[in-house]
Design a protein that fits this description.
It is a single chain. The chain has four helices and eleven strands. By secondary structure, the chain is of the alpha+beta class. The chain has one domain: q2cbj1_9rhob like domain (Jelly Rolls, Sandwich), CATH 2.60.120.620. Strands 1, 2, 3, 4, 5, 6, 7, 8, 9, 10 and 11 form an eleven-stranded antiparallel β-sheet that branches. A hairpin with a 7-residue loop joins strand 7 (151-154) and strand 8.
Length: 227
């Protein structure tokens, strides 16, 4: 389903850190099917304010940390099951290794599905040091940047210091290499947005890392996302 050549043939920008926008990842038919059957099951609400960063969103596991399995596979459409299979493939890891110049072929990886509803956000931050490479896929069939929900590539920790904005429309994606300067955020979704901002985040980690989203042995209260 994923056109891996689009990843392999893309070049990373070097400023303000190493990142790239990768587009046209699926056929038109697959775009329509992925958008129409976007998951709404097995989500948890994640939110905090006043700390290092403000954040609020709903998240679902797609691929558990370091595993070759698909979370709640029985609830996924055939299109989403195939997308998850593509993310688990050696070809995806090879393509991501090619664009980043980092050997990702054997590193632990996890993937999450997100809904950012009205008012949701992820404030300016650098990822945790154990995160090496992040790849964010987008699944809104249409989206206006005035509704927020964009990935902001920042020159600094200041949310106003924007180097680039990535619109979350389906077929589009963004990847970046974690560094001490890799400041970014998801801009606050407008209260007037008619659809949630929809994305999948794939993260490659240092060996031995533990998922902060789904800590082992911790039971989470899950729900169907409405919206």
């Amino acid at each position: 389903m994923i056109d891996f050549s689009k990843i392999r043939e893309c070049s990373m920008k070097m400023q303000p850190f190493r990142w790239a926008e990768i587009s046209d990842l699926y056929s038109k038919a697959d775009c329509a099917a992925l958008s129409k059957t976007y998951p709404h099951d097995h989500f948890r609400t994640v939110e905090a304010y006043g700390g290092e960063k403000d954040y609020r969103y709903d998240a679902r596991s797609l691929i558990p940390m370091g595993e070759q399995t698909i979370s709640h596979a029985e609830s996924l459409s055939p299109y989403w099951y195939q997308l998850a299979q593509d993310l688990l493939s050696a070809e995806y890891r090879i393509a991501m290794s090619s664009i980043t110049g980092i050997d990702l072929t054997s590193l632990p990886m996890e993937a999450h599905v997100y809904h950012y509803g009205p008012g949701a956000l992820l404030g300016p931050h650098r990822d945790l040091p154990e995160k090496i490479v992040t790849h964010v896929f987008y699944f809104n069939d249409k989206w206006h940047p005035m509704d927020g929900g964009c990935l902001a590539i920042l020159n600094s920790s200041d949310a106003k210091d924007v180097a680039a904005l990535v619109n979350p429309t389906i077929g589009n994606s963004a990847t970046f290499v974690r560094s001490d300067t890799s400041w970014h955020e998801v801009t606050r979704v407008s209260e007037l947005a008619t659809q949630s901002r929809r994305s999948v985040t794939v993260t490659f980690y240092q060996p031995g890392s533990i998922s902060s989203m789904w800590p082992p042995g911790v039971d989470m209260e899950l729900h169907d996302y409405q919206g």
